[in-house]
Specification:
- With 177 residues, the protein is α+β, with helices and mostly antiparallel strands.
- The protein has one domain: Nucleoside Triphosphate Pyrophosphohydrolase (Alpha-Beta Complex).
- Helices cover 24% and strands 32% of the residues.
- It has four helices and ten strands; from the N terminus they run βαββββββαβββαα.
- A hairpin with a 2-residue loop joins β2 and β3 (47-49).
- It is globular and about 40 Å long.
- Bound molecules: 8-OXO-2'-deoxyguanosine-5'-triphosphate.
- 8-OXO-2'-deoxyguanosine-5'-triphosphate (8DG) binds at residues 53, 55, 80-81, 83-85, 120, 126, 162, 164-165.
Length: 177
Amino acid sequence: MRPNVAFGASGAPNATLGALDATNATLGRLVGCRVRGRGRGFRVSSGTVNAVIVGAALVRDGKLLAQQRAWPPKHAGQWELPGGRVEAGESEAFALARECSEELDVVIEVGARVGEDVALPGGRVLRIYAATLVSPGEEPRAVEHRAVQWLGPDDLDDVDWLPADRILLPAFRALLN
Ligand SMILES: Nc1nc2c([nH]c(=O)n2[C@H]2C[C@H](O)[C@@H](COP(=O)(O)OP(=O)(O)OP(=O)(O)O)O2)c(=O)[nH]1
């Protein structure tokens, strides 16, 4: 069933094609070449980007929500932002709202991009968007994860982040400051 979602201006479903163009431009910058084609597999000179993983930089009262993975064993105990793979036919904002509904049981509003794309193993990229709770009093809960916590700017370095998220820490800090 589709979750109850709320999108900000950047997440309008009809923005999907524009988002794909933006994706191509971003990927082109990443690999230093022009990126051709639309769809889920982007042909680039150095390989194919197979999937976009979206993450929500969910901020409330100057703090960022992080969640602790329970699996796979290699990453269990490490921290990441809520999110996941953009499925076929979804806008990135919709995927983010769906993942936050599934993982945290909250409704979010999706805002602007945060930081640059980070390459992940397997030809995937991690792409972060700012987000807020539609009902700020609603408390996210760890539905699929081991734990969740709100981190202030001074707490960001105290957490064992996934490697890609560690690269994004300056962008997370800038968002909070
Ligand atoms: N959600 C999320 N995933 C991240 C982050 N940083 C990072 O490296 N990843 C990686 C971990 C996983 O390899 C991948 C996301 O997989 P996932 O298992 O959470 O998402 P999903 O349910 O949609 O994945 P799948 O089962 O469809 O493959 O991205 C992050 O901050 N948030």
